[in-house]
Every structure is written in structure tokens, then in C-alpha cells.
What does this fold into?
Amino acid sequence: MNARILVLTLFILNVGCNAVSTVSLEQQHAPLPELVEQPVDRVELGRLLFWDPILSGDRDVACASCHHPDFGYADGSQLSVGVGGTGIGPARSLSDASARRTTRNAMTILNTAYNGFTLLQGNPRSTVAPMFWDNRSQGMEAQAIEPLKSEIEMRGVHYGRDVMIAELLSRLRHNTTYVAAFESVFGPGDITETHLASALSTFERSLVTRQSSFDRFLRGDDRALTAQQQRGYQQFVRSGCAGCHSGPMFSDFQMHHLGIKDLVDQPHDVGDGQDQFRTASLRMVSRTGPYMHNGRFGSLDDVFEFYDEQVDRNTDPLLADVEPPFGSARDDVRAFFESISDGEYDRLIPYSVPSGLRPGGGQP
Ligand code: HEC
Ligand code: HEC
It folds into this structure.
């Protein structure tokens, strides 16, 4: 048993949770461990690409249009507007009559460096980490290419799915600032899809919140959590939520059927008719509403109500005994959620990007 897990066990004993003997290693919560440091030049190249609308068909959308630091690297919207949108966050709207919203809620990309991480399995290699609400993509590098090819998110209608990456690489190869930056990071030679994916995902891996109050508490700072937050954690475990929201990420990264239907019936880019979704990580949960894969719930209260009244309890043994909190216990759990959402993270927005376009895309 390493020190971190011991601290956690003591914590559970301290707050008097009787579950200590039954909590398996798989289910225990733990602070986010330090990662291998990412090379700074690659992170900074990735940041420029992340903010540069040059990577969208019509040069109007960037990754940051939907994953913005002001909204916990999500976008605060139920469903997202990519191509044909203006503005940021919940105020982002369809400026173009032909524009469509995504069929899924934009998830935060904070801490995706830990996707798939459980104490029993460890942190999976970044090439196999589960990605998206339905785990349909493996690895951050592979994931980073998908939005570029998605018609609704970034591609638009002027380039076919099969030629989009070649078009983007050609744009980068014609931009002297990018050519110099890629050469200094990856050495001489043509800019490739692998380089592009590597720079984007290296930047993403640098976006972590290791210093939340909960992490500091588990590392030994007794004053990092208020009494209310400690009660809230205990209540969260007692309510049966930790059965699935387990491990350092508050997710088992398994697929479960809760009975939430997709809101919109237009086909997804990949995988239509899904009825199982990955347990959402609850890290940053106080900052990343609306909730669930389809952004159906606007508030945490709506989520508690859902687990009380609407969840399909028959399909998953882990749901059978779930009893969501009420009244002041609910306030306590909300306070505990704040303690896993208050970690500092990198919010730097580049002043300009090599294309000369507006960082983040869209009009002012
Ligand atoms: C139009 C809005 C939009 C844009 C632009 C966008 N995303 Fe996303 N992103 C989403 C949505 C919606 C999801 C969830 C999709 C799903 O699960 O089907 C998502 C999911 C992700 C995930 C998965 C996180 C996880 O925990 O599984 C990552 C990583 C990500 N996006 C990175 C990027 C990168 C990198 C770019 C730019 C190349 C980008 N996104 C551009 C909306 C967007
Ligand atoms: C059987 C496993 C399971 C249990 C038990 C469970 N959850 Fe979940 N939770 C999930 C899954 C799966 C999702 C994603 C569902 C979706 O998107 O359709 C989710 C999503 C959430 C979200 C939304 C997060 C986001 O960013 O959108 C919150 C909040 C949440 N759960 C809180 C709770 C609470 C509170 C409890 C206890 C009362 C609980 N969960 C019990 C599996 C579970």
C-alpha cells in the first residue's frame, strides 16, 4: 500500500465511513499524480494550433471555440456550435442559417491526460486512453484529428472528409511561422498528420488541475477541506455515487446504461443510437454544466432529481442502491464537488496566432 492510498484510507476512517473494508483499490479516490513533464516548445506549438482557426475548413472555428478556459475548457452550452457560429461560451450562437449544433455536449479537456486512470490499472498509455462520451476513440493523438474532420465541428462543407487533413497540412506548410515552429520541435522535414496530432495532444496533456482542495487534502493538508466538504464527500460515497464515480478521476471509465436518450435524432458522425455512456469524470463538475452526454440537465439539482426519480435502476447493479442526497445533504455534496473543481489551471490565451486570424475564431 503506498502512502497516498494510506492517506485516503485514514481519511475514510476519519470521516467515519463504514465502507472502508469493502472499498476495493479500483474504487478508491486519490489525488492526481504528477505526470512526466511535457516539452515546453511542443506545448506552446500545440497551444497556437488549438487557438488557430486555420485548422477549420472556413477558417472560422478553433478547438478553443468549444473548449474555452473561461468555461473550464468546455463551453457552458447544452450542445455546441462549431462551423457557422459566433461568440464564445453559452453566448455562442448560430450566425448562419445552415449551421447545426453538435449532437453531444462538449466535455472539458482538463485532465484528459488521466483518461482511463484507475488505481488498479494505472494510467493507460496515451495511445490507448478512452476518449469521447462513448469511449469510441482510443488515444488523445487519434482523438485530436476527429474534430478537424467533423463537418459540424470544424470541417464545414467546402472540403470532403477524406481531403480535409491534406488541405490543413498544406496550409501549415505554406505558413513560414508554422514551418519554423514545427522544424524546431520535430526536426527538419514536412509537417505531417502525426506532428499535428502530437502537438495538439501535448498541449492538452499539460492542462491538469492537480491542486484542487480535495487533492491537497489527500496529500496531507488537513485544512484544505471545510467540515461541510468532508460531510459532502462522506454523503457522496454513502449515496452510492462512488460505485461508478470512482478512482482518482471520479470515473471508472466504464460504459453504463442510465436510460438517458439522445436528445436529437440526427445521426452522429460516428456511432448512432448509443444507449450506454462512459461514467463522466466529476473533476471540474462545478464548472462544466450543462450535464450528461446530451447536456440535458442545466443544474446539479436536476442531476440529483434524475438519480432520484428517472434513472433506470434495473439495468445496472451499481444503480440498485443509489440514494441521492436531499436538503442540506445536497448542499454538502455540492460543496464537496466544489473541492474537486477549484484547482488552478493554465488559462493563457495567445495574443495572436501564426495565421493572423482571430485566436479562437469567429467575429468579435
Ligand atoms: C464545435 C465544438 C467543438 C470543437 C470545435 C472541438 N470540440 Fe472537442 N469536443 C466537442 C464535443 C461535443 C465533444 C464530445 C463529443 C462526443 O463524445 O461525441 C468533444 C470531445 C473532445 C475530447 C474528448 C475528451 C474526453 O474526455 O473524452 C477532446 C480531447 C477534445 N474534444 C479535444 C478537441 C480538440 C483538440 C479540438 C480541435 C482540434 C476540438 N476538441 C474541437 C466539441 C468540440
Ligand atoms: C451505474 C453507474 C453510476 C452511478 C452509480 C452514478 N453515476 Fe453519475 N454518471 C454515470 C454515467 C454513465 C454518466 C454519464 C451519463 C450520460 O452522459 O448519459 C454520469 C454522469 C453524471 C454527472 C454529469 C457529469 C457531467 O459532466 O456531465 C453527474 C453530476 C453525476 N453523474 C453525478 C452522480 C451522483 C451525484 C451519483 C449518486 C447519486 C451518481 N452520479 C451515480 C454513471 C453513474
In short: Residues 133, 239-241, 243-245, 256, 258, 260, 277, 279-280, 282, 285, 288, 291-293, 300, 303, 307, 316, 318-319, 322, 324 surround heme C (ligand 2) (CB under 6 Å). Residues 1-7, 9-21, 267-272 have pLDDT under 50 and may be disordered. The radius of gyration is 21 Å.
